[in-house]
Amino acid sequence: MVSLEAFGYISVLYENLIGASINLEILQHPLHTAEWAQYLFGLSKPDPTTNPTMLEFDELDASGECDWSYESDESHDTLYTEVLELHREPSENLCAMLSCIAMCESGEYNVDPRQLKGVIALSAGDSIFAASALVSDPAEASRNGKPMIQRLFGNLGRSELAFLVPPSAPKLMEYNPADWNMINHEPFDGTFQDSFQGTSLHLSFTDFEMPVDIGVRGLRDTQVILLESLISVDHCGKSVGDINVISLFNSARIISQCKHRSVSQAKSSSGNDLVSLDCWEEFFDLPAKTGLFRAHGNWQARLAAAAASVQRGMKTLVLPQNACLDCLRHMYVLNDKRTCSRSHRDAQTGYDVVIV
């Protein structure tokens, strides 16, 4: 039963990994013994020393057959369409998925998901299996039903299976008083625009790597490694810093879609307490009021700003790509007389940065 559920998990996972293949050597290993299956379904590891011929009589059922079911704290009635959501934390789901993919790609490597904490991608053969959060808008990546992993064609030029992990403390640029002439902190005029067209994301690597235990000893070569990777933010050739994308989904509030009928972005006639952030210098020198990071329709800049804001310890709100002024009013961000008072807004939200 457990092997069937593990097979169903693989089926659902690979349904969205177009072009990915599975090594048939995986058929030589019972799926219920896989570390990722035990991690997901709460299985106790089978005892290899157990001999069915040595079982006591009271361990047999009425038909004389031994009950080989494994102890579990989880119900095994999970539908295949829901099996990818056994854990609520995105990082836990991601670890299990990448461990499963590593076994399917190699046919044998049994990596414990607990060793993959913080991992953001896997490079295997001609494929890079990356968290969807790395290659899409944060609001889109958080939408229900969105695959957590995407397959990208390419490799890192390494023979090993490489799990990409960000540094424990990525560094961002700091406010420079010499940039005072770049900082205006203009009041929000009610329009959404993209002021960060020169912002881009880049992947690079440090010199740190570490072998991963796959349960096999005595091999001369390293088969699986953790490779420290940097996701860097550049703006028009100037480095903004490094970000940890996965962390923002555990800290920021993300609205995945706009549900208002009117998507008008006409200028607001009422006063508001929002300040437009139209350059990175303004972002790193936040005003006393809520800052509105205007990168409308630019997923790379929106992703970079959301991750950087969380890293700086700011209370962050990410609005959908098609956000409208009603989204701001609904979230009590806009100080509109028709919706709420200033004290009510501060009590409800108090966001430092809003990404639009």
SSE blueprint:
Layout: H1 2-14, H2 35-41, H3 90-106, E1 121-124, E2 127-131, H4 138-141, E3 149-153, E4 161-165, E5 199-211, E6 224-235, E7 238-243, H5 245-251, E8 253-254, E9 274-277, H6 280-283, E10 290-293, H7 299-311, E11 316-318, H8 325-330, H9 342-348, E12 353-355
Parallel strand pairs: 4-6, 8-11, 9-10, 10-12, 11-12
Antiparallel strand pairs: 1-2, 1-4, 2-3, 5-6, 6-7
Helix pairs in contact: 2-3, 5-7
What percent of the residues sit in helical stretches (DSSP H or I)?
10-25%
Beta-sheet strand percentage?
A: 15-25%
Give the class from helix and strand content and strand pairing: alpha/beta
Mean pLDDT: 78
> How far is it from the N-terminal to the C-terminal residue, by CA?
47 Å
List unreliable stretches of 5+ residues. 44-81, 263-271, 335-348
Q: How many extended strands?
A: 12
| Coarse shape | elongated
Order of helices and strands: HHHEEHEEEEEHEEHEHEHHE
- Total helices: the number is 9
Domain module tally: 2
Q: Biggest β-sheet: count, sense, barrel?
A: 7 strands, mixed
What is the CA-atom radius of gyration, in angstroms?
25 Å
